[in-house]
């Protein structure tokens, strides 16, 4: 019988081995690589998702550094699905634009591995290594279009600012270790705050929050987001905006649940201010955007503010709301940027809002995916975004953060305008839309799957909410 320690890292092995095999195929099978590499990438991501969903290690984490419970396995399944969807949306897009080589598919799998490590880390070293693996992979993916100046500029901006944020994060972890003497996350953050270690704990946590704030685009660490989202290839933007943010927020949720009450009392006001600023700045700035990818970038900033608002309620049972909305957010943003990818022409991406004039009449199914995702991001029924925002605001109000919830509700009302403005361009005007290239049955099927899930979770959310509640309760205990 296989040792349970190896079962814990079976999804990780699947992704790492898949990435290595893809690089080998690109190096030694050049003539057939274009046919083999996408299949290898798809199979590796699928294997990681299946092993996470169906194999319960039933033992402690590998070397005590990885969580082997339902929480980390749930997010591993989400990251596998995000990777699979990104591969589907990228297949024709990357091939038509000349970057469908082994480096793109291999690095994509390593980025997914980084996400799983970040979300499942119970040790600061694994968290740091996973975050660095994710960041380095994203630097390469953003610059996938080597001959595109916008893509290269976006990668450089993300690299420079990400390196600085990584420095803050590393120094923060070092300070926490110096103060607590523990690299175990739950033991370190659960340490009792005393007069001797208070300053060190707060300094370390503040530095860690700078790095995390950058990764999830919290205001004022958000300035890279619109430029990078606009310059990166649309499927890469979908992967970046969903997987990386969900992974880091999953880690932040773990930190919050295991933190000592005295530590939490100091961090809660900081989260309150960051959540309010992020919701307001994200939604108000999105009003002035004339490019769809920049509009969606500011929208994603605002979405992180909503989630951070609910994170304040984790000590009062709000963790389930956070996890549910993270899953729904992954579907919404993946579908929105995926729609940009499948609606773009072979010569350039459709980024200007006027490029989508009358698209709902010419390409109804693909435009319908974008419309439903925008409806869901706005929090309108009967989509999953409505249920997601409802549970977020309910958790915040139940925890006593009524003023912050009111700020979030007003910000959400503002956001409805710019979402409906895009849909007005899609359906209430006519114009020349140009030719949209084929994406194959898999691309259209992935879009329809996302559309169906958003509607299904908006109508019947109870099974997922119940499952998430059980997963989170096991983590908190």
Helix content: over 70%
User: Which blocks of ≥5 consecutive residues have pLDDT under 50?
Assistant: none
Structural class from helices and strands?
A: mainly alpha
Topology, number of strands: 0
Number of helices: 20
Mean pLDDT: 86
Radius of gyration using CA atoms only: 21 Å
Q: How many distinct domains?
A: 1
Q: Whole-Å distance between the termini?
A: 29 Å
Query: Can you tell me the overall shape?
Result: globular
Order of helices and strands: HHHHHHHHHHHHHHHHHHHH
- What share of residues are in beta strands? under 5%
Q: What's the story with the biggest beta sheet? A: none
Summarize the structure.
With 477 residues, this protein is mostly helical. It has helices spanning 4-8, 10-28, 33-54, 70-97, 102-120, 124-142, 149-180, 185-189, 198-215, 225-231, 234-258, 261-286, 292-311, 319-343, 359-362, 364-378, 384-398, 402-427, 440-459, 462-476. Helix content is 77%, strand content 0%.
Descriptors:
mainly alpha; single chain; 477 residues
What would you say this structure looks like, in words?
It is a single chain. The protein is an all-alpha fold. The protein has one domain (4-476). 77% of the residues lie in helices and 0% in strands. It has helices spanning 4-8, 10-28, 33-54, 70-97, 102-120, 124-142, 149-180, 185-189, 198-215, 225-231, 234-258, 261-286, 292-311, 319-343, 359-362, 364-378, 384-398, 402-427, 440-459, 462-476. Helix 4 (70-97) runs antiparallel to helix 5. The longest helix is centred in the middle third of the chain and has 32 residues, at 149-180.
